[in-house]
Amino acid sequence: MGMLIKNSIVLVDEITRLTKEGMVPYDAVINSTVNRTRPVIMASATTILGMLPLLFDPMYSSLAVVVVAGLTAGTIITLILLPIFYSLFFTKLKKTYANKYLRMKKKTIILVTLALMLLGVNTNAQMSEKPRVIAMTDGEIDDQCSMIRFLLHANDMEVVAIIQTNSIFQRGGWSNAGWIEKQLDAYEQVYPNLIVHDPAYPTANELRSKLFLGDQDSTHIVVDTDVIRRVPGTESMIDPTHWADTPGSDKIVETLLENDPRKVYIQAWGGGNTAAKAFQKLKPNTLPSTSVL
Fold this sequence. Notes:
Elements: H1 2-20, H2 25-51, H3 61-91, H4 98-102, H5 105-126, E1 132-137, H6 141-152, E2 158-164, H7 179-197, H8 204-208, E3 211-213, H9 247-256, E4 264-268, H10 272-282
Parallel strand pairs: 1-2, 1-4, 2-3
Helix pairs in contact: 1-2, 1-3, 1-5, 2-3, 3-5, 6-7, 9-10
């Protein structure tokens, strides 16, 4: 959004400068557009090309589509529609009033900025569908750092559940240490500042209500040395049929059985056993059109 606004301001400012120097307004529009086309396209193309790899990433493909489409449309508006409207604006003026309307540069820039902002509003509307996310964490120090970043971006997603689990590195888990509760207490302290930037941030109590305990039984951890060669559809190495249900696995099952077509992103920072139990329970069921990533 900022790039499109800057491009428009640069173009309008160049047109105004040439007009003040005595050039006919129509010629000023043509010359300014020709002179600024290359840098505008180069700036937009750099960002667009940088976003192309994200089109193939399930997590960020929707963001990449919005950015690429928005920049493409904005560049077209800047280089084609903006000069046309500016030309029409000047051709309707009498020469005696030309100098008067030259002083309207700032107002014109504001109008162009508002138009681009409206374009941004329409683009943001396409991103209003937030991804649903379930995060499973073993509470190791790297996960504690990741959780801080997770909470920082909680306004960009719908947090369905945060499930405390174990892993081959943290066989007992860290749920008894209260680390995530401390992080949510810190989140609550900065919450008033967060909602200044985006009121979509969930409250600390909302996030506390989404905390669940997953499988922390160390006997349910299986190290598969052939994991690199294993592909979907091959014989499973474990059978969680007789494992006890946990609030975490039940929450995964409940979420995936909801009649909601939106994708569910299950982040396995740990807790492969919790997910295995959930998927084992789901096996006899026909899932709705939900996509699981």
